[in-house]
Amino acid sequence: MKKLWLSLLSGGLLLAGTGCQNTVNRVENADKTMTPNVVNDKRFVTDGFLADRLQLTGINTATTPDGLLRVQITAVNVRVGFFSQMWSGLTGENPYRIQYRFTWFDKDGMAVDSIVSTWKEMTVIPGEEVQIQSIAPSRDCKDFSISLKEAE
């Protein structure tokens, strides 16, 4: 009987400790006045866990006043709900940390070496929508790719 009570108590403490995770609620303008330049994307997914946690919802581009290509990726941490929160709490994946890197290409499709093409880290809270942005290092850059991975 003591083992049963001990098991129930430890299970209850485990659930109590992992059930209270931070999440994000969001309110936004329902009547959008912006006109983003949405880019059709092509994805190459090798990490299904990352794809299930961080959902890429849009890619926009614009040109800066200096004529540089500017890119914004919108992503949402979709790890919400009781069981996802419990698992993330047990594995230490909450808040979720990712790394990303932009690679820039010239008009011929050749990668442009740049100081901005380094891995950067970001923390994404469950339910949070984030914008990942970068600006091309030169006017010669006409295209881009972004790589995403879980932070180590």
UniProtKB/TrEMBL annotation:
**Residues spanning the signal sequence:** 1-21
- Keyword terms: Signal
InterPro entries this protein is in? DUF1425, YcfL-like_sf
**Record keyword Signal present:** yes
Question: Does the record carry Signal as a key word?
Answer: yes
One Pfam family recorded for the sequence: DUF1425
Give the source's domain of life in one word: Bacteria
Residue ranges crossing the lipid bilayer per the database entry = none
Q: Could you identify this protein by its name?
A: DUF1425 domain-containing protein
